[in-house]
Amino acid sequence: MRRAVCPGSFDPVTNGHVDVITRAAALYDELVVAVLVNPGKAGLFGVDERMALIHEAVVDLPNVTIDSFEGLLVDYCRAHDVPVVVKGLRAVGDFEYELQMAQMNRELAGVETLFVPTAPQVGHLSSSLVKQIAKFGGDVSSLVPKAVNDRLVAARPTSAGGTS
Ligand code: PNS
Question: What is the pTM of this model?
Answer without folding.
Answer: 0.94
